[in-house]
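To the wet lab folks,

You asked to see what we're planning to order before we commit. Fair enough. Below is the target structure as tokens, and below that is the sequence we designed to fit it. If anything looks off to you, flag it before the synthesis order goes out.
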């Protein structure tokens, strides 16, 4: 049994199809099947339930898959450690971020890439539930999510900043030069909000309910781009974290009001597996994040805006 065979099994479990798995592993289907067969013979158990097509893993296969993921991650970490000793840190950094943190994450990934030019960072927009799964299954190195609302389990945490909430809407005479708006009043506007599978939306709903208001979003989306397009090209309003403003900048006719009654904030930070040792790329990213002051940087960016 060799490491390559463990990779065959993990990819097959992910793709659930022999031909697709072979393509992902850059081998022929017969090579992939033979590798898994050799592993079964070496371990003395059946790993894959076969028919004319992939049916699934056996209970023994599921147990081997669990170990295979750990072995592969540990081997990649070893490669990263050896590379770091020779020519500096190298390897893939896999990050999962909830959508509302995407305007902020470049404040960390850009300096990380400059400090470690041989690394390659992959960022995926995910729900907090998907981030938990990725951390547990070792397919993610780092998650960027809320730390104080529906907190993730079996992770180490690093607090980054607290987000506050603003109401974005079209300017109209009734608003005058106001700087704030109660949640209950904001609920009366035609709203475009994130979908309820997004943790940010569940937070927003909670604060609307605290204000005694019912949320009736006529349009829902899991995409910040779609949310933004409805704000820019339609007569819609929305609730977003204040950090969102650093992404959109100044827009004629759009006004940002701080939501009050209640005044709400939630902590955003990084999570990583609580297993030791961490992959070197994850450790290095957390070390950089500890030195960063995202609260100060977000405040600085927002100070240049006139919304």
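Sequence we intend to order:
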């Amino acid at each position: 049994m060799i490491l390559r065979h463990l990779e065959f099994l993990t990819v097959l479990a992910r793709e659930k199809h022999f031909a697709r798995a072979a393509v992902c592993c850059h081998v022929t289907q017969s090579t992939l099947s033979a590798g898994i067969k050799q592993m079964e013979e070496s371990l003395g158990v059946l790993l894959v339930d076969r028919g004319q097509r992939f049916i699934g893993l056996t209970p023994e296969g599921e147990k081997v898959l669990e170990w295979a993921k750990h072995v592969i991650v540990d081997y990649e970490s070893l490669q990263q450690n050896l590379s770091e000793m020779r020519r500096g840190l190298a390897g893939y950094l896999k990050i999962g971020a909830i959508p509302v943190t995407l305007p902020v994450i470049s404040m960390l990934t850009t300096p990380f890439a400059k400090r470690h030019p041989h690394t390659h960072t992959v960022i995926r927009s995910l729900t907090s539930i998907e981030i938990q799964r990725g951390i547990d299954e070792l397919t993610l190195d780092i998650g960027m999510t809320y730390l104080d609302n529906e907190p993730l389990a079996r992770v180490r945490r690093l607090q980054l900043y607290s987000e506050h909430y603003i109401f974005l809407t079209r300017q109209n005479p009734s608003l005058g030069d106001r700087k704030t708006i109660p949640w209950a009043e904001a609920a009366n506007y035609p709203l475009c909000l994130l979908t309820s599978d997004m943790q940010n939306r569940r937070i927003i709903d909670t604060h609307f309910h605290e204000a005694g208001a019912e949320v009736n979003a006529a349009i829902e989306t899991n995409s910040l781009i779609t949310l933004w397009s409805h704000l820019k090209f339609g007569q819609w309003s929305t609730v977003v974290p204040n950090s969102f403003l650093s992404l959109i900048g100044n827009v004629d006719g759009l006004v940002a009001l701080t939501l009050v009654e209640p005044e709400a904030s939630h902590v955003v930070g990084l999570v990583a597996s609580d297993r030791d040792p961490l992959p070197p790329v994850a450790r290095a990213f957390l070390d950089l994040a500890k030195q960063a002051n995202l609260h100060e940087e977000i405040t600085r960016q927002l100070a240049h805006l006139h919304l």
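Structural context that might help your review: The radius of gyration is 23 Å. The CA atoms of residues 192 and 254 lie 15 Å apart.

Thanks,
Computational group
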